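Hi U.,

Before I forget, here's the chain from the pilot set. I'm dumping it here mostly so it's searchable later in email.
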Amino acid sequence: MPPARVPVAKTARERLTLEAWQAIADYALKHMPPWVHRMLVIALITGLRRGDLVRLQFDDIRDDHLQLCLQKTGILLRLPLALRMEAIDMSLHDAVEACRGYSRGTVFLLRKSTGAQLSPDSLSARFETAREAVFGKYTGEGKPSSLHECRSLAERLYRDQGINTQRLLGHAHQRMTDVYNSERGLTGGQWKTLEL
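Structure:
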């Protein structure tokens, strides 16, 4: 009896490009509540999941680090405020400072105009609203990019910078981080040259 073949899972969600992220962020800055643009910047700089983004508090900043317990894995992560996303020329420090004073309340980095905590669904919904405002209704195969794709984009951009993305994303195994690194056809089949 031949060994069973594992079926190949179809990719369900389209990857987010830096250009698409920038267009969505520009729209959010001009047309949406102040927290939406800040959320997009922090999501890209930190690579955090939406459940962790909504829990970020100013009290989580200690010794020039943003420290948190990742909700999904329980991993304790300390991100230096000096962490810089070269592609958008912003540091985590810059992103945190932009969160100060944009609305009432100073507990949560990202918050409603009342100062109340946001829900993960609110983050996703606002991302989708901005994406559709910029690009229209999605007509491709599978699903359009979601807020979670900021995580993959962060991994790809930071890997190019030489950052340890496995540690950044809080993965126990490199192979999971490598899944986030897959471009899913974004390069259009361009050749990648091995340098000697």
